[in-house]
Write a structure and sequence with these properties.
single chain; alpha/beta; Alpha-Beta Plaits; 2 domains; 6-stranded mixed β-sheet; 14 strands; binds adenosine-5'-triphosphate; P-loop_NTPase
Amino acid sequence: MSTASHSAPEPAIVIDNLTKVYKTRDGAGKLALDHVSFDVPRGQIFGLLGPNGAGKSTLINILSGMVKKTGGTARIWGFDIDANPRNAKNSIGIVPQEIVFDPFFTPFETLENQAGFYGVPKARRNSAALLRAVHLEDKANAYARTLSGGMKRRLLVAKAMVHAPPILVLDEPTAGVDIQLRQQLWAYVKQLNDQGVTIVLTTHYLEEAEQLCDRIAIINHGRLIADKPTRELVGMATEKVVQVTVDRDLVEAPMHPRFEKVELTGGRVLSITYAKDKANAGDVLSAVQSMGLQIVDVVTRDPDLEDVFLNLTAAAA
Ligand SMILES: Nc1ncnc2c1ncn2[C@@H]1O[C@H](COP(=O)(O)OP(=O)(O)OP(=O)(O)O)[C@@H](O)[C@H]1O
């Protein structure tokens, strides 16, 4: 019995105390996920970020059933991955990090085979429309091995959607994909999201995550260190940077109590980091002038996700 129909639907994904220890030869074990808990709200584009080896793929592979968790629980679209693995699996489409295809099937056959694997009846298959959506209609009957890297990746996205899951997970989908194809891929992902598909993606491109994601979770060394709406996360930056060009060549960057950090990035260009709560750009410029330097040019840069990411991951290291 369930009262779910009377209350708000549960989040697309609920992860609770998820833990993974890989077996290692020395017997010590590798803790890849350490009691990670977070929810992915329905209808969002959710970014899962973290440095190399943080545990992102492990988490996604647990959701897809490829890696066995050591502890904790995960629910996908209301289905517990242990109690209801079939429904959990049917609710999610995964675009893996590694490109794996049978090279002798054509893109059309690849999609048909995958649909068959998920038990999608012939009448409800839409392989041709999926190929069109990822701009591969003219490659429908080519061997998969003849596709470029970017084409293969787009085919993987189509393959993940054959059973029309409510959730699409993309693990580093744009690694090695050129900028134009990246934009096409994101346009398609956004289109799916507009149609109601919840998106989870891992990426190393922070700028991309900042532009695309409604919410971002950051994992570092297997631990969750942030989980916030993107705007709030970017707002957590405590430092700002101002680039000042002065009127003469310097040999060394002059430090000042108002500065958190100063670097000489060109003969006459100083990159000055200051704490937002202790100083403002005016204070910083006065400090430069007080050292007998004339200011020729000033460029300020707003903090972005990269600043926050570096701060958080450095603090948690
Ligand atoms: N099969 C395995 N056996 C032992 N250790 C593993 C195994 N798979 C992953 N690890 C380790 O677990 C940690 C997390 O790896 P994971 O691949 O989940 O990280 P990631 O965040 O996805 O990194 P990347 O961005 O580089 O893909 C790493 O230290 C990795 O070396």
